[in-house]
Amino acid sequence: CSFYYVFYLSVTNGGKTTLAEKLKRMLPNCDVISQDDFFKPESEVETDERGFKLYDELDALYMEEMVKSIRNWMKSPASSGVVTEELQNTCDNLKNMEDIYVLIVEGFLLYNYEPLNELWNRRYFLTLPYEECKRRRSTRVYQPADTPGYFDGHVWPMYLKYKNELEENASNVVYLDGTKPQEELLSCVYSDIIQELKKLRE
Description:
Blueprint: E1 2-9, H1 16-26, E2 30-34, H2 63-75, E3 101-107, H3 114-117, E4 123-127, H4 130-138, H5 150-169, E5 173-177, H6 182-201
Parallel strand pairs: 1-3, 1-4, 2-3, 4-5
């Protein structure tokens, strides 16, 4: 029996990867697929008239390959190599769930790609306000490095564009405040997933 989950980061540096990796250690038979692993090489990413590399668009990613990876996992999760040897949480929540497999798919442009939308059992959307997002972005080192004006000229406008599309077209999305402490977010999402897994077991 399989169950699939998704994390969607509305904007850069929202904490999605950290959250996903912590959940992986807490949930039964859990694996993570990250959208960041499907970026095209820099030479294949388009550049606009301002000289900005357009990384925050679907065309910058091998999305078909990502869908293929997810579907391959779904076909045979038990043979994916996922083994939860020592769960951090050994409470009654996880009893009788040995045959349930959880896949967390995390990325910043997931719900805007139609072939993926039929796969999700649960949707989470991490949000950050402009100033906090910009502050966090400034502390990270990227390859290639952000050019002057890149955040305001490309990253933030694309976030607003895709967020609007999500609000117009997607349903059953759980919105999460990315400014809250990581442990609070982890507790909230973990409890939600456990409840869904219990429903599946019933």
